[in-house]
Amino acid sequence: MNSEEIIDQGQGNKRKRYFVLSEINEYNQDDNYLYLQLSEGELVLEFITSEIVRVVMGQRDKADLSTSPALVEHNLKYQDFEVEDKGDYLQVTTQDLKIKINKQKLGISFYDLDGNLIHRDYSKKALGWSKDEVRAWKELREEERFYGLGEKTGWLDKRDGKYVMWNHDTFSPHVDDTDPLYQSIPFLIGLNQNKAYGIYFDNTYKSHFDLGVGEKDYYSFWAEGGNLDYYFINGPSLKEVVDSYTTLTGKMPLPPKWSLGYHQSRYSYHPEEEVREIAQNFREKEIPCDAIHFDIHYMDEYRIFTWDENRFPNPEQLLTDLGADGFKPITIIDPGVKRDPKYDIYQEGIENDYFCKYLDGEYFIDKVWPGRCVFPDFTQQAVRDWWGDLHQRLTDVGVRGIWNDMNEPAVFNETDTMDTDVIHQNDGDLGTHDRFHNLYGFLEDQATYEGLKKHLSNERPFVLTRAGFAGIQRYSAVWTGDNRSFWDHIKLAMPMLMNLGLSGVTFSGTDVGGFTGDTSGELLARWTQLGSFVPFFRNHCEIRAIYQEPWAFAEEYESIITEYIELRYKFLTHIYNLFYQATQTGLPVMRPLVMEYQSDEETHNLSDQFMVGDSILVAPIYQPDRDRRMVYFPEGTWYDFWTGEEYEGNQHVIVDAPLDTLPLYVKAGSILPLAPVVNYVGEKDIEELNINIYLDSKVTTDSYKLYNDDGLSFNYQDGEYSLTEFTYQYQAANLEFTIDDQQTGYQEYKSYCLSFNNVASKPRTVIVDGAEVDDWNYEAQRLEVTIPAKTTKVEVKL
Ligand code: GLC
Q: PROSITE patterns from the entry (predicted)?
């Protein structure tokens, strides 16, 4: 066999013998594929677009071109590529890329059309295998940074780390090198010389990324089974990479607006009276809250889809009352089904052969909360349909969202999970659990999302999950599992959530206040400040922890916590709008600064501050007894949201941040809608929206496109939404503001209160749609004028 044998000592000195693809004997181009025949097997390049190229290895055989469920069905294909034989190498040209493939010693290099190298295979070995393991080696460049990889601890830049993709219930404290956690997203972004590219490794087995630990020249990724099948995604911007990645794995659906509000949870609120008391407290104290979570004690001995008759004698009445008060009840569901012959869900699953078994027909049985359990085989459509329909039992009594926990799946044994020998039926294409493990939660979430969609009539489902795989954004929000009430966990949350966002998962958050351990008033106040700008905002803690509701500590803390929950609601219109954008572009709501300021090296590993969209900068405090911190301001001018103080960009500044202050900045030149505070989404019609315009003498124009709809139903799909573009022009003594109603299928606002900040002098005249008005106000460089929503133009003469 004409293969090269390589001894690799990269993995803990374990010697392994790899076979690698080496010499190309023949090639042929067909449709959007380029097939390369090598003595050791086949390599196929599939051109999805001119910037997305799939690479699949067939070791000793034809390449297997099937895909995992992470990929959405698409009909993208790019056929216009040209292949030229250049002697030593094949040159493939697309509209955006030049790809060189070495013929003697296989290796692929990706260049832009100007000949700049974007990324290439390692020169000594590129693609190979060792027994069941399949592996790719990539050139590591000196300045290369890495992002993505989903839910990982550590800094924003993932370089010099080793990471495992194997969904795991990790209760031990999450520290910088705790790995793996609950999610597996084998998607990596490289950034080098201001060019970003992505690699999505479409392999569901346990996989590994070694990003240069002990090696200067190469990095590599491999899986313990399955195919070497990856997608190269060209940038050059991080935004383009994430957009393309979410074209492959799906954009998130529009969430119900209430799910972006504040959630209150505890393991567990019970009995019914306690839930009522919590709810009543929120309303009496006027602390906004949209959702209350029911953890495992609502169930009858942890039998899923049941209620404990003593603790919750009349769930329908309770949930109806909560609903009337504006709370959306969310119940936890674990996949383990109690092995109880008198339990109908167990009976149905057995009768229909829905549970996971070994090859010899024995059920996989292990312990979770209910004791010995069996586990649905979500790889089968029939099981997913059955599971989805079971949710009707909950939606019928008023449940509005589902929280899927323990779905790695977690079990109480030495491996913490299902035996890898268990067989999944996968609708005929069966395989062992090691192939489906990382998909278990994903497929359960798919079933849940689809079940809720069916049984919540014309309402958008809300699903929250602990485990997931690439593409999970199509079905569920993600929370980062069992963190602790440690100050360090505020810090840890930021890069973790930012990288989740870069990995397609926009809707994510951590347990505010910390799950395990006792929080303190100060910690909860600071954590709530972070939470108010994190996409998923839920306070949750475990059974042994002290209570940590917003009022659990001294009044000083309660008022600060309340202020920040209220702030969330002021920003909710903007946050909802950013979520809408995420449904279109895949771009995260919570972003690392590097996504907005890619060429600024100061941002490349900036892990303790983040952006919300492209105009809000948040720099939380994550240490006790701190009343100041350093903030990096990238280019431009930044306004302190609270004081209006200006900061010039490209500098580090030490800013004051007493306990009641979250350092929060708005980029000069931008437009920001702010809504009135409500106790919950939909409490009342919002008739007037505040539009803030942060003027800057150096920025002459900006615009903001606002999406709006009923926030709840699917009617937006029939055109019941509005898109309004606000634009200003600011030059010398003229300020002009225009409103362009581009889509008017939904009307909410009757008027806009425009607040122009930093207006240099008192206006001489204000003209609204051609008519001069005098009911405006100018104070401290701020001009306020309220206009009917149907206005098209406001002119201000200074
Ligand atoms: C797991 C979850 C946690 C939940 C608990 C009880 O530890 O991560 O959020 O409260 O189980 O259901």
A: GLYCOSYL_HYDROL_F31_1
24 and 148 inside one domain: yes
Q: Tell me if residue 136 falls in helix, strand or coil.
A: strand
- Non-local (6+) Cβ contacts of 429 within 8 A are none
Half-sphere exposure of 744 (CA within 13 A, CB side): 6
> Could you tell me the two tokens for 221?
């990724």
Residue 600, CA distances (Å) to 189, 594, 635, 732 in order: 17, 7, 9, 31
Q: What digits encode the pLDDT tens for the residues 447-494? A: 999 999 999 999 999 999 999 999 999 999 999 999 999 999 999 999
Domain that holds residue 315: 259-479
* pLDDT tens figures, 156-192: 999 999 999 999 999 999 999 999 999 999 999 999 9
Angle, helices 555-570 vs 521-531, to 10°: value is 0
The DSSP code sequence of 517-530 is: S---HHHHHHHHHH
Choice from 367, 408, 482, 510 to test ligand 1 binding pocket (greatest atom count within 8 A of CB) = 482
Q: How far apart are CA 399 and CA 390, in angstroms?
A: 12
Whole-number Å distance, alpha carbon 510 to ligand 1 midpoint, is 13
Residues 341 and 192 occupy one common structural domain = no
Active site residue 408: yes
Which is the catalytic residue, given 482, 542, 608, 702?
A: 482
CA of 266 to the centre of ligand 1 (A): 9
Tell me the C-alpha distance between 734 and 711, whole Å.
Answer: 37
496-505 pLDDT, tens per residue?
Answer: 999 999 999 9
Tell whether pTM > 0.85: yes
Which tokens go with 393? 């039992």
pLDDT at 2: 43
Q: Minimal CA–CA distance to 566: which of 487, 677, 463, 473? A: 677
Question: Are 380 and 467 in the same domain?
Answer: yes
Cis check: omega of the bond before 676, within 30 degrees of 0? no
Tell me the β-bridge partners of 463. 402
Whether 133 is catalytic: no
Q: Which atom of ligand 1 is nearest to the CA of 542?
A: 10
Ligand 1 centroid–CA 167 distance in Å is 15
> Are 12 and 161 in a shared domain?
yes
* Burial zone of 431 (CB within 10 Å; 0-12 exposed, 13-18 middle, 19+ buried): middle
Nearest CA to ligand 1 atom 5: 267
The stretches in the chain having pLDDT less than 70 are 1-14
pLDDT of 16 reads 85
User: Do 701 and 763 contact (CB within 8 A), yes or no?
Assistant: no
Q: Whose CA is nearest to atom 4 of ligand 1?
A: 267
Distance between Cα 63 and ligand 1 center (Å): 42
Residue 82 and residue 135 in one domain: yes
27 located within any domain? yes
Domain identity same for 658 and 735? no
- Which residue in 42, 133, 405, 709 is the catalytic one? 405
- For the CA of 482, the closest atom of ligand 1 is 8
Element (H, E) at 346: helix 344-351
Tell me, in angstroms, the distance from the centre of ligand 1 to residue 267's CA. 7
Q: Which two tokens stand for residue 629?
A: 């911190």
User: For residue 543, is it within any domain?
Assistant: no
Q: Which two tokens stand for residue 134?
A: 């399949």
Task: Say if residue 266 is in the same domain as residue 237.
Answer: no
Ligand 1 atom at minimal distance to the Cα of residue 296? 12
pLDDT of residue 6: 53
pLDDT at 214: 85
Element (H, E) at 25: strand 24-30
> CB under 6 Å to ligand 1: residues?
267, 295-296, 332, 405, 466, 481-482, 515, 540, 542
Q: List Cα–Cα distances, 428 to 203, 380, 419, 425, in angstroms.
A: 19, 9, 20, 6
Residue 685 a catalytic site member? no
